[in-house]
Design goal:
Blueprint: H1 3-20, H2 28-35, H3 42-49, E1 56-63, E2 69-77, E3 82-83, E4 90-91, H4 96-109, H5 119-122, H6 138-143, H7 166-170, H8 190-204, H9 208-220, E5 241-242, E6 262-263, H10 265-277, H11 283-292, E7 297-301, E8 304-311, E9 316-322, E10 324-325, H12 329-346
Amino acid sequence: MTKSKTKRFFQIAMPLAGLISLIVFPPWNLVKAWIMPLPETVQEQVDEAISYGIDGMIVYVDQRGKEPALYAAGWKNRENQIPADPHSLFKIASISKLYIAVAVAKLTQAGTLSLDKSLAEYLPEFADKIENSAQITLLMLVRHRSGIPDYTYHADYPWDDPFKKTAETYQLVFGQPADFAPDKKYAYSNTNYLLIGDILDRTLGYSHHRYIREEILAPMGLTHTYSLMSEINAEELMSGYFVGYEPDIKGNDFIQPGGSMISTAEEVGIFIRALNDGSLLSEEEQAIYSSIYEYGHTGLLPGYQSHAFYHPDIDAVVVQFVNTSGGTMWNVSEIFYNRIVKILRKG
């Protein structure tokens, strides 16, 4: 497939992937995945998922009172028939936003940031380029209540060859009308975290990636969590696949804050446990965090889907990585995640 055809494929396929999840009458394979009998073990469920078009899956379970466990099935690399490795690195996409929100909570408690300060005050050069910038606060950005359009929905966003500089991404939203007035409603927008990344860099005087590594990851001993693809050995990264497009697309490098991080299922699980049990943050930081963001997240990039949540009723963290996207794969992935949680509840 030529580069122009590849670009056209992703321009059409990415929006359609989102629309498919809204279909009222889902395809039979989704109905079958939903109603089939629940197997006895998580590994059986992971193995079964592969028959629904998933190339590879990794699951991490940390349930209180039991040893944390990793499960895997399918391929790490389909072309070379390399089996899925539960220790592989994976693009965690928007799960990255949890780490950035933690950084905001810590820096707010330290007095370095103010949640009430406006976007125009933090980044004055954007004041006349983003509508309502003087009324949009850092808190609104973190909570997805800014009304700023999401750059990923722009028709010209290059999914096949992502921008190498955030300045290029901003061109898709500069001068665009707001989706709604600040703080009037919630609408998830990746642009919010693109801006927060710049606010953190400007305020710290150095990269927020470094701050996350030194102040969040290092104290927890998380040595296999990275902010950017340029920091890793690509051989350790699980391949990514998109329905209807044969090549491995793991080489696509997404550098935008809030979607760029790479980790293992185990290290994401350790982070989610610490975020939820209070061991990651001080009491004061935890109170701030609870007022600004979520305690679990999903992630989606071409070729990569992830779920990472804590389930208090069974005191379990469950992280699921799937290296296939497009078509009905998001629906399939969610169904199997929910089924794995049900297996744990039965156990």
